[in-house]
Amino acid sequence: MENLFIVSPAPHLKGKESVKKLMWGVIFSLLPAGFFAFYFFRFYALKLISVAVGTCVLTEVIFLRLRKGVFPSEPSALLTGILLAFVLPPSFPWWGVVMGGVFSILVGKQIFGGLGDNIFNPALLGRAFLMATFPVLMTSYLEPHTLNALTGATPLGLWKFQHKLTPLFPLALGEVPGSLGETSSFALLGGAVFLLLKRYIDWRIPLSYLGSFLLLTGIFSSLSPKFASPLFHLFSGGLILGAFFMATDPVTSPVTPLGRWIFGVGGGTMAGLIRLFGGYPEGVMFSILFMNALTPLINRGTRPRVLGERR
């Protein structure tokens, strides 16, 4: 009777990592991109990030108070606000950011039951809502270092509609018109390396997403120069932000290794097809949201079988 055993559900071995620590790590990895956004767009960057973060956090507080729920200790609403601001044009009006933040938290997260139960990436769902509601505002971009209302076409827009290619160095550095946090590929890659080294994200999803995307664009660019080189596609638009910071969301992506390969290949292929042949120059948002919807099916189809279980 002296050696009693306590029976409890799995897991029995727990690591030092936590949801809270993981999310703070992702926020830390986004700081370089945030710095470059402030350097290029100054007041616009500060306004967008502040309004988006404040709206997301306040919306979650009010909703949980009304439901008499407990406000979580993890900064998921803060992270959603940052990611939402990063995928919006710098000149987007503050009231539109408020609408997007409320939609991201209520429809993208809390309506499903909160963190861990949501199907879609909340920030991308908020962007999709704003894209459908304000298509003109969502496609009006500022030139870097410009503090007035002058707008310029993004590199993808120039390639898609005017058949002009932006040089790779300013494209990778971020001195081009685009959404707030997706222009500087160097800054995003630095944050992605940190996430991979800390194992906060699984390498399978970004590798399969980028690999399938680059393979597809490489095949078509070899057939005709009008499709542009894979490097141009890699550093333009929201490809890197989506592959490392959106598609790897542990809640809305598959949990099995095989499922993550399927998720990445499907998303990268869809993003490439939309860019090359669609009427819209960017397909990252649509591809990730579509694969989010397939995640429950992928998890079910790739679940490891218990020994002796019938298929």
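That was protein one. Protein two is written in the same sequence-then-structure order:
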Amino acid sequence: MLLLGCLLAGCARHDEKLVEADHEDEASATEFSDDQLEIAGIKMGSVERKVISGTIKVNGILDVPPQQKVSVSIPFGGFLKSTSLLQGSRVSKGQLIAVVENTEYIQLQQDYLEALTQFEFSKADYERQQQLSSENVNSLKTLQQAKATYQGWLARKNGLLAKLKLLNIDLDKLATGDITSTAKVYSSISGYVTRVNVNIGKFVNPADVLFEIVDTEHLHAELIVFERDVPKIKIGQKVRFTLTNENAERFATVYLIGREIGNDRTIRIHCHIDKEDTNLLPGMYLKAIVETGGVEVPALPDDAIVDFQGTKYIFVPDDSVVVSTSAGEAGRSGHHRFKMVEVQPGNSELGFTEITLPEGIDSAQIVIKGAYAILSKIKNSEEEEGH
């Protein structure tokens, strides 16, 4: 008796599970008559082969090429005497941006003036010795010594002159004996000051960066692409991107593809922005979509795919259930039963969406129009059963 009771209880639980499964199948299926089918505008069709452009979603930042970003420093140490720059200041190429002072600059100019005088004297002496040598008046050794002295002072003069040019010393004034203790710093590009690292009176070394200046007229989009997507990226592909807290789309073009994969298995893609905007700033984060080109894939019209509670579905004929009107009647003509099938859609373009059908689904028998009418009837039936 105990064994019989356990068997009966097990069968009852099994029957309950079957009932629940049947109820779930019923909840995801519904029946239409011919008239209802026509009124709802439901039409059948099949999966088609369509060329749909693929896309890759990536993140990135706005950046500037190295040529458009300058770190300003001085070749020799000194105290910052004056500057008017602040972070965000606009500067032009060739504009005076700072004045640095150091007594060593005075010694450098004195050494140059001395070298210049000695050079001119040694040059004249060398030319005189050449003339005498041509007349066999002096010895070859005397000529060689004059030549060595001349070349030595020439090298020293040119070396000191190069240093003075690095300090932007006015050579015309220096030639008149006007020696200064200051050196002027000029901007080598036009742009905006993004960093100020000094203040008046601070001593700066040659390795110190006084300012950073960025030309924002030539920003580019630096995209971070995962290793698996790199083969899909080609030079010339179009990119659509939006900035943080901005809804408007901007456009760019893939210009360069990095040749080194980072430790995080990503690669950098350099993109030129189609329409430059001086209001954009380096370092802004962006979200982008790279259009990877058209590929022929199985696709369905967008009307064939419905969205319910965040999941995508299509409808196909439900041949697993026989609809009958009375005992012994095999079925009735003019009635059509449909069931929901979950799918994973891909890219969409021109009214079609890439689709991958589950196994066992006939690709030639799919509802391509009126899918939402079927979904609405199924959900209305559930609500009525709930009441």
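Residues 3-24, 322-332 have pLDDT under 50 and may be disordered. Keep this in mind for the problem set.
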